[in-house]
Design goal:
This protein has 399 residues and is mainly α. The protein has one domain. It is 62% helix and 3% strand. Strands 1-2 form a two-stranded antiparallel sheet. It has a two-stranded antiparallel ribbon with strand order 3-4. α4 runs antiparallel to α6. The relative contact order is 0.18. Belongs to the acyltransferase 3 family. This is Membrane protein YcfT.
Amino acid sequence: MHTPLPASAAPVVAGAGTSRVLWIDVAKGLSILLVVLHHAVVKNLGLDAPEPLAAVAAGWGAVTSALKPVRMPLFFVLSGYVAARAVHRPWAQVRRRALAPYYTYVVWLLLLGAFFSVERLLPMNRTQDLGELAEDLVWASTGVWFLYALALYFVLAKLLAGLPAGWVLGGAALVSALSSQLGIEQWNRFSVLFHFTYFALGALAPRVVRRLAEGPRGRWGGLLPVAAAYVALAVLLARLPLPISVHLLVASVVGVPLGLRVAAVLARSGPPARLLGWVGRRTLPIYVLHTVVLASLLHLPPLVDLEEGSVVRGVLHPLVVTAVAVLVSLAAHWVLLRLGATWLFTMPGRPARARRQAPRRSTEVRASSSEGPYQVSSRPSTSSQGERSASGPSVAVNS
């Protein structure tokens, strides 16, 4: 059984009838916001910015590139961390962990494929025909590759769970380091190959992740030295002619601890922690819907008019677009659930845990795509305080 973080380092928040470790939800919230910001920069700002703001666009591009070794590696570490006990359970008890994200992947592969076959402005990895669709069912190349990877990584981690964790992590890291040398053209397929190391770290070495999140005692929890080390490492790596996979892997050695420490420190920040935790419990609808919002914005009057060449507007543009994409995605999710479209976000059928708890009276409809970082609620239900709650089902860190 995993020992939870001390209360000072890991505030908990009530939700779904159990306690959630708040820093995990905060980390998920940070990660999904960074994902949306990245797409707002490389897709929307790249199309909207006129020539006078090329330097601003390049600056934003440098910022989001510098965060690449943090956002997705951190997400996968968290995914593996919450699956750490499940990888040691019998297949009959945990097969939904693999089937549910793959089901959600297929649903959104088809829906987004249909949408982006009509919408052609947003730069996207589009599925062009039935042949490419068949390939994507086997090896994801589109923007919903994360869900595919969650299913694949859980199966791999479970198959390898009986081996020494050090050997598994060493082999996974070697594959990650070599992945950019294999001639893979699609970035998302490269990403599927590259990121298993991080899921394996969380699933097979959860104590390491917990120690990284705990950090030293104190208000800033050792955050500033880690941040300084990350900046210094990023500057050094930029000067070295390394393959991109080696560059990302080495940078993530500091980037992942940085993300964990930022989340742990923010988890003690009061209102910001509650807001980020709230977002972190709703990452699935943001993940699958935000590119639809970004594409739609290209066909509407601009949120931030950049034609005058205002540097301030150029700096604010990705932030405004990110906020709108997140809010509209969550609003669309709210509407879809109330129309009964829960099948868009969760595999039909009751999880085994829910069946074991029956016939307890409950109005909850659980909707976890993976019982990992991408979780989403499809209820309404009532919390123990009698308040309306929309938080997703919790997977206890030490369960």
